[in-house]
Amino acid sequence: MTYPFAFLDQIWLTLLVLVPIVLVARLVVVGSRYSPILIVVVFGLGLGALMVASGAGTPGLADHDLLGMLGRATIIALAAAFFTGGQQLRRLFGQVEAPGTAPAAAQVTADATEVIPGTDRSQLFAILRAFFVLMGVEAAVRALMGTGGEKAAVLPLIAYLGLILAAITLDAGTRVADKRRFLGRGVLELAVLIAVLLAAALLARELRALAAFPPIFFAMLIAVGLGWVWHDWQHGPALRALLFGGIPVVLAANFLIGGSLLLQALALEGMAPILVYGFFGQMLWMFGGISALMLFGRTAAVRNLAPGMAGALSHAGLTGACTAGDMGEIAQRRAPILIAVPFLGHVVLFTILAFSLEAGRMLLWPVALAGLAGVVISGFAFRDLRRSAGDDRREVRGLMLFAFGWQLVALFGGLMLLSGLPLDHAAMASSAALSHFGLFAALQGGLFGPEAASLIAVVFAMPFLVHPFVFVMFGRGMERGGEMPRAPAYVLAAIGAAGVAAGLLGLG
Predict the structure, then answer these.
(1) To the nearest 10°, the Cα dihedral for 40, 42, 44, 46?
(2) Residue 482 to residues 37, 328, 473, 485: CA-CA distances in angstroms?
(3) Rounded CA gap, 481 and 385, in Å?
(4) Which residue(s) pair with 116 in the sheet?
(5) Are 93 and 231 within 8 A, CB to CB?
(6) Alpha carbon distances (Å) from 310 to 45, 313, 402
(7) Per-residue pLDDT reduced to its tens digit, 175-210
(8) 3-class state of residue 148 by DSSP
């Protein structure tokens, strides 16, 4: 069998591996208030390790090219969230009201017939469409950029199949007032996604001599800007699919790869302390932020904690849970704003990292000043939250300040703690300790070289084992009428601080 047709076989294999992970995760948590992302973590890591142990794959699953390609499609799922965040920012700051009645092309009535426990027909088709969108857009961008390597010959075919299937996939039971126009909106969204990612990649390449900004930095700015301009755009099928199923599919692919590298990575010299820091850093920065909101912001409401911490850490798992609606309707509505706002802090992050790379060492004074600025901004956020009295607009503004401030505290405070490490190791440990999607995507894209790009999947995946604590706590909060229990959060923050201290001793 010639290679292009062998690659086509991988489409079905990858589809039959990734989509069931997401569906099983939704099935396991059906009837509870817990997020399926928790199960995606455990199932993905376990299946990846099993594939290597059984001989079905090699560490890193390099023989499963399409799986690796989808794992590196993080930027596509984030671009959709950034666009939506730009829309919400315009509505908030520009005093623009959200569109009332959707135009005919956007009037959709989902098919709520349950086909698998926890997943109705429209949700199933959204997950399938997200798979095809990720595959088609990623292949198209690689083909147009000429970065396909030895796989370049087959990329146009993969792009064609992915984009066509993404454009036409629509559940027959979903009622749409004007299907032709609705599907046309999806085609336009696919074209804009490709254009945004191409522009981001070209800007990153052309400006590399000036500063080593990764493509996600430019994709963020462009997508947020487009959302600000087209604030009244009603989402078509492509954006809907990415917001619902894009992050779970990308995470499933990454956890499969991370699980396959697990034993190999643990055997590497100096890797264990980085993983320890990443694991306990999850507890410190997540539950430390939650504890700070409870103590100083005087709020334990999941509607505040979930989107606030998703934005404050650019946290992959919590971002996916919020945008999918697992944390309630209010958290789902607020999440795009709070994801986009701290990403503007990436102007600071990637600027410092870019110049640190050029200097060959961490630039400590800029890192320290950025962390101190985060402490001050967080202080103003707590004041605003205390005074919000439950008002939606005032709560969102306070959470925006918190998300921006705590992002600076966690990122640059962590980099200060890790300043004795080589830059690539410090970046990997920081990304893992926050489950930080932006830094993860930058590492994936080669900002810190090929070794860090190859290892980041497992370094990023391992601390996700702490997510049972994260999602159990948020699940308990949802079951308690939307109020998270306080004492366990304080205890977990203290455990995280002690673990980070132990990890730093190991790094030393």
Answers:
(1) -160
(2) 19, 9, 11, 10
(3) 20
(4) 119
(5) no
(6) 22, 6, 11
(7) 777 777 888 888 999 999 999 999 999 998 888 766
(8) coil
Which amino acid does the sequence have at 153?
Answer: A
Contact (Cβ atoms closer than 8 angstroms) between residue 84 and residue 243: yes
Q: Positive or negative, the Cα torsion across 475, 121, 70, 312?
A: negative
Nearest to 254 by CA among 189, 195, 155, 320: 320
* Burial class (CB within 10 angstroms; exposed 0-12, middle 13-18, buried 19+) of 113: exposed
In the chain, where are the structural domains located?
265-508
Residue whose tokens read 């430019």: 218
Residue keyed to tokens 């909101």: 293
- What CA–CA distance (Å, rounded) separates 322 from 335? 6
Q: How confident is the model at residue 214 (pLDDT cuts 50, 70, 90)?
A: confident
Residues 6 or more apart in contact with residue 467 via CB below 8 angstroms? 37, 38, 41, 282, 317
HSE-CB of 329 using CA atoms within 13 angstroms: 1
The residues near 140 (Cβ < 8 Å, ≥ 6 apart) are 155, 159, 162, 163, 194
Bridge partners (DSSP) listed for residue 436: 315
**In this structure, what token pair is assigned to residue 152?**
């370049």
- Tokens 């893992």 label which residue? 432
User: Which amino acid is it at 230?
Assistant: W
Sorted by sequence, the CB contacts under 8 Å of residue 291 that are 6+ apart come out as: 489, 490, 493
Span between the terminal Cα atoms of the chain, in Å:
52
Place of tokens 């990575």: 265
Considering the entire predicted model, what is its pTM?
0.82
